Amino acid sequence: xxHLYFKIEKQKxxxxxxxxxxxxxxxLLQQIAFKNLVQRNQQNEQQNQGPPASNSTIQLPFLIxxxxxxxxxxxxxxxxxxxxxxxxxxxxxxxxDNEVLKRMGMSFGLEEGKCSAExxxxxxxxxxxxxxxxxxxxxxxxxxxxxxxxxxxAQAVSHSEIVGGTSDSKSSENPGLCLDTEVALATGQFxxxxxxxxxxxxxxxxxxxxxxxxxxxxxxxxxxDEDDPxxxx
Length: 233
Description:
Butyryl-CoA Dehydrogenase, subunit A, domain 3, 2 domains, two-stranded antiparallel ribbon
């Protein structure tokens, strides 16, 4: 039962990591596209020696509604022009500014994994240095979403099968094992409770959550003292 629980919990954490990576990718693409657009507009202003006419620009953010020419549209606008109500008698599509900028090539094709070496250097210059590694991973395509997850998952499952009996018998006796298992599931490594590395990992995890660190070595020494018949009571 514990082995099955660990596998399910591991899969849940992998899915959450994938979701967070997808969110991170979208935010990075938005920043790159926006900064690239700003740089292009600045270059155009320098070449034209001034900003473009106000009636020839579109302010961000915006939405584009696409539908057939035969579609009848009923549009109502509030007095303060903050609310718009559209009624369509046919199908339609809505595209936001981020999607439009991607289609214009402002994100250098990173969302499709099609980015030249020169564009990759430019894209890296548009994000903080700490995030440049993510841009490199994104340039390889969608495979980076699963990078470091599938192999670790297989290793964790095979290792947990080996130590499964130990974890079942000790889980109820050692409350700290739950913390150690949570760290192991997140990192893709499953260690036996007697391992010094698992003890240190549990302590670090407990401290980060504001809990009292526990030591498996101390508990084992106490158990040995209790079992020793020669020890004084």
